[in-house]
Amino acid sequence: MGIVTNCTDKHQACIDECNRCAQACYECFEACLNEPDVNARKNCISMLVECAQMCQMSASMMSMSGQFAKDHCNLCATICDKCAQECEMFKDEHCQKCAQECRKCADECRKMANM
To answer: Residue span of the signal peptide, if any (predicted)?
Structure first.
């Protein structure tokens, strides 16, 4: 449900998933920086930040019913899929959980973009 209006109700599931994914990516980013193989994770670490930023931007666009919200969500789905792919290369729990969140977000974003 919207916080001050109900104009975003149709996008609320996607807004929530984008916010959840951004949080997962930032948490995974922090965990990856503390892994012993941090050099092997450079692409993943970079992708985590890009994904989190895109999710935050998409949530913002949907919250204000921006005219390019669907475009943002379409790109967000692509970035979330790529981030999930990067995370899936590492078998630790935080990367696996983050990959799951990214996949869920990508699915919600695709649904929203196709509304």
So the answer is: none
| Segments forming the whole domain that contains residue 57 | 11-113
d(CA 7, CA 54): 22
Query: Which residues of the chain fall short of a pLDDT of 70?
Result: 1-8
Number of domains in the chain: 1
Phi, psi of 34 (to 5 degrees): -100, 5
Give the Cα separation of 80 and 74 in Å (integer): 10
What whole-number distance in Å separates Cα of residue 79 and Cα of residue 114? 17
Let me know if 111 is exposed, middle or buried by CB neighbors in 10 A (0-12, 13-18, 19+): middle
Question: Model's pTM, two decimal places?
Answer: 0.93
Return the pLDDT at 82: 98
Q: Does any domain span residue 3?
A: no
pLDDT of residue 43: 96
Question: Please, which residues have CB within 8 angstroms of residue 40's CB and are 6 or more apart in sequence?
Answer: none
